[in-house]
UniProtKB/TrEMBL annotation:
Pfam families in the record: adh_short (PF00106)
InterPro entries per UniProt: KR_dom (IPR057326), NAD(P)-bd_dom_sf (IPR036291), Sc_DH/Rdtase_CS (IPR020904), SDR_fam (IPR002347)
Membrane-spanning residues: none
PANTHER family from the UniProt entry: PKSB, RETINOL DEHYDROGENASE 10
GO MF entries: oxidoreductase activity, acting on the CH-OH group of donors, NAD or NADP as acceptor
UniProt entry keywords in alphabetical sequence: Oxidoreductase
Taxonomy of the source species: Bacteria, Bacillati, Actinomycetota, Actinomycetes, Pseudonocardiales
Residue ranges constituting the Ketoreductase domain according to the UniProt record: 4-186
Name recorded for this polypeptide: SDR family oxidoreductase
Entry similarity comment: Belongs to the short-chain dehydrogenases/reductases (SDR) family.
Length: 259
């Protein structure tokens, strides 16, 4: 991993920054991509004390910008071998308030943003015959909850990652999907600040933020991600919270098959 190049979307904050810090300690050159220019400048300055860093303002929905950012990254740092499709928001809507615009917004960031990262960098990895892709989903991509916008996108990222892993193994490329439970990040606040139109309502924010604060910090998660990559694990978890829910889901499915 040392001396390789990593590209991290949503890399200026939250889990993305935790991953970047863990990589930097191992001598990995880093390209940070994020929509928040202020956070980008702050995080790039921090990481530059440890390793070579390039920072790019990037909206992961913008495919042309993604391609140009990839070109600039590889010109400055070299070929990207480690791709972290991490950028995301936490959208929410009740069923009665769903709209086409809300679906488009939620899926564009949380699913299409991942697809854009893959489609931008994967051909380069295939040509070189090596690479590692880590897509950030959620425990909500394995076990459903009532947040249909978030759950839909995250289930799709899990399925995409599992299928891609099978498809690209013959090219010497590994794929893992990160399925975090609660992690102490500012994702709720960041989603509300993005004017996405799908943010949690005021009455839900305190409980969700308290839930997220109950989990590990971003630096601990960064180390978990790298440990999972070292094991070539298909799934990377940040705790055991999801296990009983997974067991219940599988039991229910198998019970239906036995009828």
């Amino acid at each position: 991993m040392r001396e390789s190049v990593a590209f991290i979307t949503g890399g200026a904050r939250g889990i993305g920054l935790g991953i970047a810090r863990s990589l930097a300690k191992r001598g990995v050159r880093i390209a940070l991509a994020d929509i928040d220019e202020e956070a980008l400048a702050r995080s790039a300055a921090e990481l530059a004390k440890v390793t070579s860093v390039e920072a790019f303002r990037l909206d992961v929905r913008d495919r042309e910008a993604f391609v140009e950012t990839a070109r600039q990254t590889e010109r400055a740092l070299g070929p990207v071998e480690l791709l972290f499709n991490n950028a995301g928001i936490v959208p929410y809507s009740t069923a009665a308030e769903l709209s086409y615009d809300k679906w488009d917004q939620a899926l564009a960031v949380n699913l299409t943003g991942v697809i854009n990262g893959i489609q931008t960098f994967l051909p380069r990895m295939i040509e070189r015959g090596s690479g590692y892709v880590v897509n950030t989903a959620s425990a909500a991509g394995l076990v459903t909850d009532p947040n249909v916008l978030y759950t839909t996108a995250k289930f799709a990222v899990v399925g995409l990652s599992e299928s891609l892993r099978l498809n690209v193994a013959r090219h010497g490329i590994d794929v893992s999907v990160l399925c975090p439970g609660p992690v102490d990040t500012g994702i709720v606040r960041n989603t509300r600040a993005s004017n996405a139109g799908v943010a949690l309502s005021d009455d839900l924010v305190p409980a969700v933020e308290a839930f997220l604060r109950s989990g590990p910090g971003i630096d601990e998660v960064g180390e978990m991600v790298l440990a999972g990559m070292e094991k070539r694990s298909p799934w990377i978890f940040t705790g055991y919270d999801v296990r009983p829910h997974l067991e219940k889901r599988l039991e229910d499915m198998l019970a239906v098959l036995r009828r």
